[in-house]
Amino acid sequence: MTIRVLVNAALLAIPIAVTLGILFGLQSHRSATGQPPLFAPEPPPIPTPKPKVPHNGITKTRYCQKSIGITPETKGQQYTLNPNQWNWNTGDPGGLCLNVTTFNNGTYATDTTAPQFMISWQYPPGPEDNPVHAFPNIQVDTDVFPATINTISKVDVDLEWSYGIGNETTEGATLAELTADNLNTNVAIDMFIDSDKKAAQDPSKAKYELMVWFAAIGPATQPIGFAQGSVSTQTLDGNKFDLYAGVNQQKQNVLTWYTDTPVEKFNGDISPLINSLFKLTATAADLPKSGDYLGYLALGSEAFSVDKTVTLYVPKLAIDIETDTSST
Ligand SMILES: *[C@@H]1O[C@H](CO)[C@@H](O)[C@H](O)[C@H]1NC(C)=O
Ligand SMILES: *[C@@H]1O[C@H](CO)[C@@H](O)[C@H](O)[C@H]1NC(C)=O
Ligand SMILES: *[C@@H]1O[C@H](CO)[C@@H](O)[C@H](O)[C@H]1NC(C)=O
Fold first, then answer.
1. Which ligand is nearest to the CA of 109?
2. Would 213 be classed as within a structural domain?
3. By Cβ atoms counted within 10 A, which residue in 51, 64, 111, 138 is the most buried?
């Protein structure tokens, strides 16, 4: 037996979270429904003797479920991964698997480094008004959340990713190759904001959704409000992002910082993309206030459709969110 087997046994005991249209933070859903938290800070005592595992080994695990929260053990900041195939059911054409590489010693490159992962998927095109099948993602489980935005001193993101053609490939393809296979997807950070602490942690209830897209691949992949044109522009870590604003079907105000050139390596503080919203005047969406709460942040890929199996590979990810409590 290995640590991995024990971790899996614990995860299998968790009821599968079925999402409503968009991703439901597993943890926040449980707190919202008054259930005890899924992942206790300390694992419960194991009655059988601890199995011997190679202390410095790595473990790879593949998850092809519709939805399951995976929180690898770590000595640093926790992350929760989820295949989150919210608009796909077992038996439907296509599918998605998430492969996670964990360190048995729980010690990653830095305190905020996430386990490496890759997401392989293929879906046929869906209806034009409902084209997304899944939002596989990795959520930051920081105890900083919910944080009033005016106390957040930085949201550092150190990210490297590639999209390749093939199942579980680490080899990236060019945008031309990906669009030739009719890939429609994005690579994005998804955040939720609300004046209410609880709602800010719940993607289905928050008043504002703020996204930062590192890529938009394929003609179907457009941010809400794209047709109305960009309302603001900013350059971050040498990359130009344009802001689009609109309201989604759940009546949430959606603000998207968008790039038309894939940004496969990014290392910078994205808090200016949040703070600049407070300087904007009227847009097609309502705008959050600096005293509102940021309660949720995840990186993922909205999986629309593609002809062949493609793989999003994320060899490097570290997200460091800090608050300056003295400035309150
Ligand atoms: C933990 O395990 C990883 C993967 O085998 C290894 O690269 C790293 O050096 C180990 N860290 C420590 C502090 O033992
Ligand atoms: C994906 O995970 C499985 C174990 O579940 C492992 O055997 C396989 O090698 C992994 N694939 C890659 C490319 O790492
Ligand atoms: C990728 O390959 C693995 C191992 O053969 C398989 O279990 C999985 O279903 C494949 N994934 C996709 C999306 O085709």
1. 1
2. yes
3. 138
Cβ(283) – ligand 3 distance below 6 Å = no
Q: Is 61 in the pocket of ligand 2 (CB under 6 A)?
A: yes
Q: Are residues 248 and 124 in the same domain?
A: yes
Of all helices (H) and strands (E), which one includes residue 212? Answer: strand 208-217
Spacing, Cα 176 to ligand 2 middle (Å): 28
In a domain, 143, yes or no: yes
Query: What secondary structure letter does DSSP report for 33?
Result: T
Q: From CA 123, how far away is CA 131, in angstroms rounded?
A: 10
Indicate whether 49 belongs to any domain.
no
Whether residue 7 is found in the same domain as residue 150: no
- Nearest ligand to the C-alpha atom of residue 76: 1
Tens-place pLDDT, residues 228-264: 999 999 999 999 999 999 999 999 999 999 998 999 9
Q: Tell me the best of 74, 103, 104, 111 to mutate to test the pocket of ligand 1, counting ligand atoms within 8 Å of each CB and taking the most.
A: 103
**Both 285 and 321 in a single domain?**
yes
Q: Please give the distance, rounded to the nearest whole angstrom, from the Cα atom of residue 328 to the centre of ligand 2.
A: 46
Instruction: Classify 88 as helix, strand or coil.
Output: coil
Is the pLDDT reported for residue 15 higher than 60?
no
Ligand 1 neighbour 56 (Cβ under 6 A): yes
The domain in which residue 29 lies consists of 1-44
Residue 50 is assigned to a structural domain of this protein? no
Ligand 1 centre to CA of 105 (Å) is: 6
- Pair 38, 100 in one domain: no
259 and 126 in a common domain: yes
Query: pLDDT-based confidence at 48, cuts 50/70/90?
Result: low
- Which residues touch 16 (CB under 8 Å, ≥6 apart)? 65, 66, 67, 68
Give how many domains the chain has, as a whole number.
Answer: 2
Q: Is 9 in the pocket of ligand 1 (CB under 6 A)?
A: no
Tell me the three state secondary structure of residue 274: helix
Distance (Å) from CA 173 to ligand 2 centroid: 20
245 shares a domain with 151: yes
Phi, psi at 85, each rounded to 5° = -90, 70
Please give the distance, rounded to the nearest whole angstrom, from the Cα atom of residue 60 to the centre of ligand 2.
5
Q: pTM of the entire structure?
A: 0.85
Same domain, 117 and 24: no
